[in-house]
Amino acid sequence: MEQAEIGIYGLGVMGFNLGRNFQRNGFRVAVFNRSPEKVRLFVEQPAAGTQPRGAASLRELVQMLEKPRRLLLMLPAGKTVDQAIEDVLPYLEPGDILIDGGNSYFMDSDRRSQYLAEKGIHFIGMGVSGGEEGALWGPSLMPGGSQTAWQILQPILTAIAAKAEDGAACVSYIGPRGAGHYVKMVHNGIEYGDMQLIAEAYEVLRRVLGLGAVQLSEIFNQWNNGELKSFLIEITAKVLAKTDEETGQPLVDFILDEAEQKGTGKWTAQNALDIGAAVPTIDAAVYSRILSAMKAERQHASTIFGHSAPAFTGNGEDLIRAVRQALYASKILSYAQGMAMLRIASAEYDYGLNLAELARIWRAGCIIRASLLNDITAAYQAEPDLQNLLLSSYFSETVNRLQQSLRKVVMIAIEQGIAVPAMSASLAYFDAYRSERLPANLIQAQRDFFGAHTYRRIDREGVFHTRWEEQ
């Protein structure tokens, strides 16, 4: 039997479906999992494409692979990956390729890349987005690390990646060391922001206009035919249309309002602080999930503070239109923050990120795929050194046109006592970014008062300190 072209260690949902994807595209696959039952299921379950081989040990898995060996780890992030690397190293040879396709922290990938390079092993830290369906039918792939390994892997990864409407594969070499996992981390941060913004649009329409899930499903379905067309809007319409089998009522109304998180959004917010990138929409999305988990506290607080708001006297159709425009504007502002963070990180970590390529490979397969990404790709292709997406003519004109709708929706939400932290943060980001002068002069004066931190002046060069209490 011919040796396998790709090996997979880890047959969870993502590893299992990626394996099927490789098979369907004609690649010979060998698999191993700590649970022999999962190996048996993968090998024996009917599937299109090549016949896979199952290994009973890591050593056997490596022996099944043609040289240079290509081994994909699909394991939980953290110590599990480090242990797997140590377990498999004795069986690898210089020139072999080890790929980490999990949601690993980028600094771990930086470290592993250097560690394995010293042993002659090529390392690829690869972000994979698209969920289980994407893994099976075509994900967006973000490989970073060894460029030599990328050249070898490119035909395989191109074959299994999602294809955009123009036929282009949603995969590209991202950059050295942990660049691939860094980009996936920020992708997930943008995803957090997107989901929170959609939830806020849903909440405003639900509470202000009293619309039910079925009506809201129809609205989101309509929105998916225009500028908001995206995977997340599409599935929102489907979620809202789903009925509970037991009650016949909308299922979403029975789901507990506690949003969980796996950590990538939090990593994005934390790293943004480290490198000095402003991502307030992502920050708001992260803390909104934290607040949602405080269910018992929120229930208690609701009995103390209650909820009263003036009756809404506006036109319902006008509000629906305004929410649609507010959602699109705040979505643009959120992407602008994420792309600006990637630009700053590229310089900070010497990753050499190509922002046009990143937007291009997110157009299909991944969770944040949206028609908006075609315009973002075009903006960065036209101006590769663009400092901020908002400075491109298309997006500056669009946000300028829609900003009043965003203001209107935020004001109505505040008046009605509805929390819209992500929309509010997007608007505040816009207003701060477009302000020639901010009140930071007062903050710097305060810092100099209590800590002699000094300040600079707008009318002359130099660094100054004032004894503020002297007359």
Corresponding CATH superfamily of the largest domain: N-(1-d-carboxylethyl)-l-norvaline Dehydrogenase, domain 2
What is the share of helical residues?
Answer: 55-70%
Helix count, DSSP H or I runs of 4 or more residues: 19
Return residue spans where pLDDT drops below 50 for at least 5 consecutive residues: none
Task: Let me know the largest β-sheet.
Answer: 7 strands, mixed
CATH architecture of the largest domain: Orthogonal Bundle
Whole-angstrom Rg: 25 Å
Shape: globular
Query: What order do the strands of the largest sheet run in, or round the barrel if closed?
Result: 3-2-1-4-5-6-7
CATH C-level category of the largest domain: Mainly Alpha
Average predicted local confidence, pLDDT: 95
- Strand residues, percent: 5-15%
Structural notes for this entry:
It is a single chain. By secondary structure, the protein is α/β, with parallel strands linked by helices. It folds into three domains: about 5-175, NAD(P)-binding Rossmann-like Domain (Rossmann fold); about 185-435, Orthogonal Bundle (N-(1-d-carboxylethyl)-l-norvaline Dehydrogenase, domain 2), CATH 1.10.1040.10; about 440-470, 6-Phosphogluconate Dehydrogenase, domain 3 (Single alpha-helices involved in coiled-coils or other helix-helix interfaces). The chain has 19 helices and seven strands. Strands 3-2-1-4-5-6-7 form a seven-stranded mixed β-sheet, with helices on both faces. Helix 5 packs antiparallel against helix 8 (about 180-210), helix 12 (about 280-290) runs antiparallel to helix 18 (about 420-435) and helix 14 (about 315-350) crosses helix 18. The model has no long low-confidence stretch (mean pLDDT about 95).
